[in-house]
Write a structure and sequence with these properties.
The complex is a heterodimer of chains A (112) and B (116). With 112 residues, chain A is an all-beta fold. Chain A has strands at 4-7, 10-13, 18-25, 31-37, 44-50, 53-57, 64-70, 73-79, 87-94, 102-103, 107-111. Chain A is globular. In chain A, the strands form two sheets. In chain A, strands 2, 4, 5, 6, 9, 10 and 11 form a seven-stranded mixed beta sheet that branches. A four-stranded antiparallel beta sheet of chain A has the order 1-3-8-7, with no helix packed on it. With 116 residues, chain B is mostly beta strands. Chain B contains no helices and eleven strands. Classes of the chains: A mainly beta (112), B mainly beta (116). Chain A binds chain B through residues 4, 6, 40-43, 45, 48, 55-56, 90, 92, 97-106, and chain B through 2, 4, 32, 34, 36, 41-46, 49, 89, 91, 93, 95-96, 100-109.
Chain lengths: 112, 116
Amino acid sequence: ETGVTQTPRHLVMGMTNKKSLKCEQHLGHNAMYWYKQSAKKPLELMFVYNFKEQTENNSVPSRFSPECPNSSHLFLHLHTLQPEDSALYLCASSHNRAGELFFGEGSRLTVL
Amino acid sequence: DQQVKQNSPSLSVQEGRISILNCDYTNSMFDYFLWYKKYPAEGPTFLISISSIKDKNEDGRFTVFLNKSAKHLSLHIVPSQPGDSAVYFCAASRSLWQGGSEKLVFGKGTKLTVNP
């Protein structure tokens, strides 16, 4: 069982669809993150949750809505996305310290 | 404005030789630096880190060097192996106790290919 699990691995959606990405971590970490990786761009931090509380929103458009019901689960709800939102969305978790992130395998999103 | 820069998008080396991956940063408040490795269709995995109080950290075949005055760090892999072929991301952060958010800032990555 991997430490950080993301589902689905691949998602294709239209601009009017509503879908959700799910992340689950089995490492006992307190912090969870959503990152976006677009082609030829650095990994971009989207949201940070620490002990279920959102501590960072990196100016992400409201069509992305995170939810963290507990320290082990993190969701990213998607609504009326644009084609430029197509990217790899990576979930990560960490214990209470700077740095070491444990990443999931990512959800490859394509918006048509 | 990119705070962490990896200016070489790709690097190719021969098996057994040394691989040197470079990273530059602009924010002098960064005090913790990391390298992550990413294979295709997988998430990045932590490789090695270094705190700003050190200038070198070694773990097996991997060594990270930090030059604070030049705001430069490098990852040395020796000897390089074909299984090291991956994309390597440099990342930096500023500790909470220094007024930072522990948010990691990543570079764009360097694709390393180790040829047999």
